[in-house]
Design brief:
alpha/beta; 8-stranded mixed beta sheet; 12 strands; 14 helices
Length: about 425
């Protein structure tokens, strides 16, 4: 099975690097990059370089594909490299893609259905990416979403997969590893600045044919013997619609240097929500104030804002856990909802625990500049819609006021609308 990694930024590079080091060469890995120029840069770099503690190691052995939106292909069909309109010709125009750039893949390979797609692109870009990648995905494919924020899965189901029979398998992933590009121009040289882990969980089978957590919930076994099992997904070596899912989970479990953890979806949701709150505080504040993560919390005003946002989030999560309903504006249908037991909110989602997590992450990544700050510097759209935007929509559905989240959301929307100025 071939693995495709789309979004080769710092986290995508870190994951691809360790996947290639841990998997046999018989499992090919394709990196899907945005432009031909980036494909050439990757080739010139000799692979992906990861720097830890001042020591850089370059990993080779990747195939390259170029993600070209349809409008770019059409432009190339009409205009030449100099921007001049092409003369009429009886010879059909064939857009150059990764085979010509990398020298290892051909057009037949590039047009094959994707079995395992790991998306590390930012949340705000995923919907647009799917419009072009969907033709290569089948109900037997597996899609891993490894990105900040929440609401991407629901958005994809709502826009593309309301019919559960057409829906590929989905895996939600989150990581506490911290990484950044070495310099602004070093796309494929990443510094691993903070150790963490890689957590992931499988969205329940929309067809209800398999219980992926059956062994974990097997009450006939002693509690300590209950654990998730690949055999609950499918039989090893057997080819069926669950084959890519089983293989993808095994692949995600392979890079031990990243400390992978396969979790029940309810436990994974707690991790994702905690990270959502952390990013909903650190990211917009650093972007609005143009500062590093560690410079925020020396002042009581930042601590006050943190406590207020955490109070709002904790109230939302508590209401969510005590409710049997799901937000129709966030969830496409009942099959798209990630069901959890109704009851009290887990301790990890109470306000004091969330505040402690924010402070812990800010301290651990004190020298980092958030991705949202970098996006504002470059005049790009940010992921605010999937952070504070998600919390405010969830709060509206459950009737929980979110004035502090609303303020951060609207300030960031205003910041995005302002033309970036020269940094001093």
């Amino acid at each position: 099975m071939r693995v495709h990694v789309l979004g080769v930024g710092p986290i995508g590079s870190l994951l691809a690097f360790h996947l290639r080091r841990s998997l046999p060469i018989t499992i090919p890995i394709s990196l899907i990059v945005k432009t031909k120029a980036r494909a050439r840069d990757l080739r010139a770099n000799g692979g992906i370089a990861i720097e830890t503690g001042g020591m850089a190691v370059t990993q080779k052995g990747f195939d390259i594909e170029v993600f070209e939106p349809l409008e770019e292909v059409v432009f190339d069909m009409v205009y030449n490299k100099g921007g001049e309109m092409r003369l009429p010709s009886t010879k059909p125009f064939v857009p150059k893609r990764s085979g010509e750039l990398d020298g290892t893949m051909n057009m037949e390979e590039i047009n094959k259905p994707i079995e395992s797609l790991i998306i590390c692109a930012k949340a705000q870009h995923t919907l647009g990416i799917f419009k072009h990648m969907r033709r290569r995905l089948t109900p037997d494919s597996t899609v891993v979403l490894l990105q900040n924020g929440m609401g991407v899965y629901e958005q994809l189901v709502h826009n593309f997969y309301r019919n559960s029979l057409e829906r590929p398998h989905f895996v939600i992933a989150t990581t506490s590893h911290a990484a950044r590009a070495k310099t602004q121009g070093s796309m494929f040289h990443t510094i691993h600045v903070g150790q963490g882990d890689l957590g992931f969980g499988i969205i329940p089978d929309p067809r209800s044919e398999r219980d992926f957590e059956r062994s974990k919930n097997d009450t006939t076994k002693p509690l300590l013997d209950r654990e998730l099992s690949l055999d609950d997904i499918g039989v090893k070596g057997k080819s069926d619609r669950y084959s890519s899912l089983r293989a993808t989970i095994a692949i995600l479990n392979s890079p031990k240097a990243l400390r992978p953890i396969w979790l029940p979806i309810a436990d994974l949701q707690i991790r994702v929500k905690r990270k959502l709150v952390v990013n909903s505080i650190i990211n917009p504040l650093t972007a609005l104030l143009s500062t590093s993560n560690g410079m925020l919390f020396g002042h009581e005003s930042a601590r006050y804002i943190t406590a207020s946002v955490c109070d709002e989030a904790a109230a939302i999560f508590a209401k969510e856990c005590s409710s049997t309903g799901h937000p129709t504006n966030l969830m496409a249908d009942s099959a798209a909802a990630i069901e959890t037991d109704v009851g009290e909110a887990p301790k990890g989602l109470c306000s004091s625990e969330l505040q402690s997590e924010v402070m812990r992450v800010a301290s651990r990544t004190a020298l980092n500049y958030s991705s949202m700050l970098v996006d504002t510097w470059k005049g790009r759209e940010t992921e605010i819609e999937f952070l504070n935007g998600y919390l405010r929509r969830l709060g509206k559905f459950y009737g929980v006021p979110t004035p502090y989240n609303n303020s951060l959301y609207n300030l960031m929307r205003l910041r995005e609308a302002i033309v970036p100025t020269v940094r001093l």
